[in-house]
């Protein structure tokens, strides 16, 4: 259960190792018979079906072990990325994202994603470098004087988007968007608390850093507004 990468990698190897044989030997036979079947894609589809069976059997056994469940999700997302980008798998075919979209598994994924995002926010705001820009010494890069915590937070949101963007239904994507909105609101509250602590020194370093953070986040969210 703790090594899903073993069978996921094995399947990717099989697909890669058989590609030339299927294209050179099997595809011409299908073409000659007037079939529209793509031998390589059908081979991939059959192997993915085996993975879906394996996932359906494994997931209930590790649903409440955060470490194992997160590792499985991470490995499945890596597998899907390679399957589509390297091997040309079709989005209309069955995929692992359908298994991750099933109610019990999906709700668990959302819960764990939120838990780790909040932990990440705790650590980024308690860091010594939280309010310092990592580009502070490069003036042409650092026009907005973005504190490290704001940049790390927006990267966190971007990573979450990247993880859920291939979910098969809009309703599931919207649930993840709801999580991101919760995180933005949580971060807003945290920034407000820091600002209240600094009101006596409104031209102080941290107060200005909070304002720069808010400006940066608002700007980036506005840029993302066109991303459906």
From TrEMBL:
Pfam families: RINT1_TIP1 (PF04437). PROSITE patterns: RINT1_TIP20. GO terms for biological process: endoplasmic reticulum to Golgi vesicle-mediated transport; regulation of ER to Golgi vesicle-mediated transport; retrograde vesicle-mediated transport, Golgi to endoplasmic reticulum. InterPro entries: RINT1_Tip20 (IPR007528). GO terms for cellular component: Dsl1/NZR complex. This is RINT1 protein. It comes from Spizaetus tyrannus (black hawk-eagle). The gene is Rint1.
């Amino acid at each position: 259960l703790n090594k899903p990468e073993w069978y996921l990698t094995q399947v990717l190897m099989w697909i890669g190792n058989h590609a030339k044989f299927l294209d050179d030997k099997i595809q011409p036979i299908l073409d000659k018979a007037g079939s529209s079947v793509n031998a390589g894609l059908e081979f991939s589809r059959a192997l993915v079906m085996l993975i879906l069976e394996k996932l359906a059997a494994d997931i209930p056994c590790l649903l409440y072990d955060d470490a194992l469940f997160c590792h499985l999700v991470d490995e499945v997302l890596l597998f899907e990325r390679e399957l589509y980008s390297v091997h040309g798998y079709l989005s209309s075919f069955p995929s692992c994202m359908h298994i991750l979209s099933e109610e019990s598994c999906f709700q668990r994924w959302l819960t764990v994603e939120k838990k780790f995002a909040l932990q990440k926010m705790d650590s980024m705001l308690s860091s010594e470098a939280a309010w310092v820009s990592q580009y502070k010494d490069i003036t042409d890069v650092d026009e907005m004087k973005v504190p490290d915590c704001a940049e790390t937070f927006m990267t966190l949101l971007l990573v979450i988007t990247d993880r859920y963007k291939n979910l098969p239904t809009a309703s599931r994507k919207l649930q993840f968007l709801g999580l991101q909105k919760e995180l933005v609101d949580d971060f807003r509250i945290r920034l407000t608390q820091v600002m209240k602590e600094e009101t006596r020194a409104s031209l102080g370093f941290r107060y200005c850093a909070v304002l720069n953070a808010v400006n940066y986040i608002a700007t980036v969210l506005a840029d993302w507004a066109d991303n459906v």
